[in-house]
Structures are given as C-alpha cells and as structure tokens.
Known about the structure:
Helix content: 40-55%
Shape: globular
Radius of gyration: 19 Å
Oligomer: single chain
Strand content: 5-15%
Order of helices and strands: HEHHEHEHEHHEEH
Structural class: alpha/beta
Number of strands: 6
Distance between the termini: 40 Å
Amino acid sequence: MKMNQKLETELNENIPKHVAIIMDGNGRWAQKRFMPRVAGHKRGMEVVKTITKSASKLGVKVLTLYAFSTENWKRPQDEVSFLMKLPITFFNKFVPELIEEGVQVRVTGDIDGLPQATQDAVRKAIEDTAQGTKMILNFALNYGSRYEITKMVQSIAQAVNTKQLDVDKIDEQVIENHLQTNFLGELSNPDVLIRTSGEERISNFLLWQIAYSELVFTDTLWPDFGEKIFIEMIKEYQKRDRRFGAIKK
C-alpha cells in the first residue's frame, strides 16, 4: 500500500467541502536550483494537476487556487507574460482529463482584464467542462479581495440608488450575492485555507469568505507540494474544533 493510501485511511469523514490554497514559493523553488523563476511556475502547474485529482478523489467539492492576483501585474514583464500563457498551456493539456474526472472549471476574478488569448482559453475551458458535477476547480485569476469588495459596495449602492434594494434589507446574504464567488452558493466560504512556502499572511485573498475558515500553513514550497502533504494538511484541518463563535456543550 502506498504512503498516500495509508494517509487517506487516517482521515475521518469530515472532508472539507471547500479548500482554498495560496500557491506560494514557485520563484524561490527555481532560484534555489539556479533556474529562472518561470521554471518554478511551470513545475507549479504540474502540481495543480496532482492536487486537483487528489482533492476530487477525497470528495472535496470546491478547490479554489490563487493563481494570479491583481498585485502580480507589478512583477517583471517577462514573468507576467509567461504567467499569462500558463492557463493556455494548462487547459490545452488538462481539460480532457478534467472532463473525464467530472471536474468543472470556474474562474473568480476579472477575466476581462486578461490578454485576449488568455481570456479565450479560460472561457473555452469553462464551457468545455460545464457538465462536470464531481468538483469545481475554481481559479482566482486576476483576483484581489479588496477590489472584489469595492465592486460589491458599488453594486449594492447602485441597487439602492435605483430603488431596487432598500438599505434596511442589506444583510450578509445580500453582500455574498454581490461577491465574485456568488456562483458557489452555500459553498462560497472555504472550510480551510492552505498557504505554502512558510509565509503566514492572507495576501488579499477571499477576505470576506475566510472569516471562519481554518488556516493551515506549511513551509513546503508549492512545486514540492504533493498528495502526501495535501492529505497531511487535511488531517490538520480535521483536528480543529470549529465553533463559529459559539460554545459547544
């Protein structure tokens, strides 16, 4: 029996329905090997495939991956250009497997702000996998939580201004309905947020949605992250006592 199968048997039935991951450490992984940073991103793309299959096999319903933030545009132009081509390469190779696995691709973020070729690849992947019912693979692409919240406020303000919404009717559900993750419905909020590479910060990722998420950090760089470590992170999540502000009797 392989090690990951042994680890799987140690998991209880409390599999998180929504797992979010900040995939960090690609550049450092490459630099440690005296390779260009883009080599780390290329390796990281392969890890996405591994973790997607692992999450689906475990019964995760939504896997949200922080692929490119609104702040990442500040990186060197050659690196940004490479990152914009990655979705094209990834979807061209991996979509047939996603369809076979019953995985549906979705994107949270400003797709219209991406280069046209990237937009086309993303929209085609969403369309081609639309019938998948086993798991949603949700890429946070050109995403920033503060921008998302700003757009949410503007949208609600516009609804109030046009008399479509009464101020007194604004509650948490109304806010969630105006966020970019609204298409996930009751699965919008991650049960657990994992960040790789040893950094312990949120980096403008799903600030509203992770209000009660369990946070799990690992020193492992994303290109070295695999099924074994992923299962260990789920085991750590299962040790947590989630009370959502209440006291359990």
